[in-house]
Fold these 3 entries.
Entry 1:
Amino acid sequence: MIQKVEVDVPTCIGCGTCWVVCPDTFREVEVGEEYKAGTTGRLAAEKQLREVAEGCPSLSIALFDDTGVEVFPTEARREELRQRLQW
């Protein structure tokens, strides 16, 4: 069960999908001259959290279970993103 959500603000591209789809958990935050994702401190349903995190194009949303283990993104998903971004 998801107990914690974190956003890696430096890697967030500010696409807005998370705060539009899941406004209970995510909000837009002004960072300098850009808008990035932030968290509200509340958790939406686990299915919705997983869908939003898996849909994040920069994998900037991390989901943690009740033992504090990061369950998403997996290392395999991070490697997949690294491979896609290589020139």
Entry 2:
Amino acid sequence: MPISAIAFDLDGTLIDSVHDLAAAANLARADLGLAPLAVATVASYVGDGASSLVARTLADDHHAEYTGSPVQKEAMARFDAHYTAGLKVVTDFYPSVQATLATLHQRYPLAIVTNKPERYTLPLLALLGIHEHFDCIVAGDTLAQKKPAAEPLLHVTAAFNIEPAALLMVGDSKNDLLAARAAGCPIVMVDYGYGDDVAALGADALVSAFDMLPELITHLDARS
């Protein structure tokens, strides 16, 4: 089925935000008397939403889960304050994202499907100056479930009144791929984000530069 609309992950796909995330996480850790983590370590903890990031960076453990313990609640409050104050200190687009989004939006409705909570997503999109490119925004707490569940992508297909097979997901992580497969959407992965070994995940296509997307979508449509 030809592509009728496109949904994008945000962090690691459109924007490189890990330095600001790491700064907020490390400030929260410092408030609690903990040493800072390397940016690469924080990057490995990104992708499952803010509460998960806080639990992982607090424990310095990828398997840590947010249970709402007193220390986690304190860390969450401190992270929230620091990140809200520093959403876009050094966060910036990956190369060619702005121009490519403008090109694609001339041809397709576009959506954001991110696990980042709305309280960060909406102001950050406004600060980045790209809010107007997106006809539907699904954040990590917009619905009852977030990626890797199918619900966020199915919400987009309902909003656009299209079949799941006509919605292309573009992301950088396993959660993006699992959500797309669960929803029945095709998926293109970028290899420059925060996901590990994305080439091995079995996406429908893999790109190393964002401006490869228009030509790739034309190729995918020709195969449909």
Entry 3:
Amino acid sequence: MFKKAIFIFFVFISFSLVKAQQTIPFRITKHNNIIVKALVNKKDSLDLMFQIAMKDCSISPDRKRKADHIIFNKEKISDQNTLNIGKMSWKDIRFIDNQLTGHEADGKVGTVIFEGKTFMIDYDNNRFVIFDEKQKPDLKGFLPVKTILDHEALYIAADNVVESHQKEAYFALQSGYSGGVLYSNDFADQQELDKKLKVTGEKTLKNSEGKSVITKQAILPFFKLGNFVFKDASVGFFAGDLKTQNVSYLGADMLRRFIWIFDADRETAYIKPSKYYSEPYYIIN
């Protein structure tokens, strides 16, 4: 009887731990974007790109799959949708119509699926892990980094070495940008990156509204995030008269180099190197 009671106790504890955290599988494209398979309103099967810089969800005009059961109003907004990803489900999800997204995606899914929760982006095992208040993540080996939440975007500080001078800048985490580091117009102009960095290429890009902007790729001697230092990092910045980039981005190529844990209050992120830490830099062609 005693052995049976012990067995039941351990089964209960194991079940409680499973319930205390949930996982969502994802895949990573060759462009470093995270894709999850979703079912919207129990009828539309879509591949959605995870966008850490937005809260809600959106549908792309270039999607390959149908989204006939998402009904938009005149403002191109659709509320009260259901969303299923993996074994998890959500209600009252907002979708925005006609927003461009990453390669291989029909739209985007934002941080609404983690609202009020501590969550992990586990690049080593291609999964999100969502924790509830009953179970705290194991932070052994992780470095805490202060985060600032502003208008749905999370910002962190990093140091940039230009001609032996170190300059701190704040970067919005931007999982939709395939590259590593993209500087704002103000930072690029103030630091004269066009003159001081070795420029390796130029690219015309389109933003989420379909407007064209010109970026240049260059080599930064050192990029420092906390205690982690990247040598000869591939960075981008905008050039020309169109001054549209108001913030600097820490893009998907840099994000994938770490495993990330974000606390429920979005005041601290915890990072440690992932299996991609020393991978060659992604070059935007």
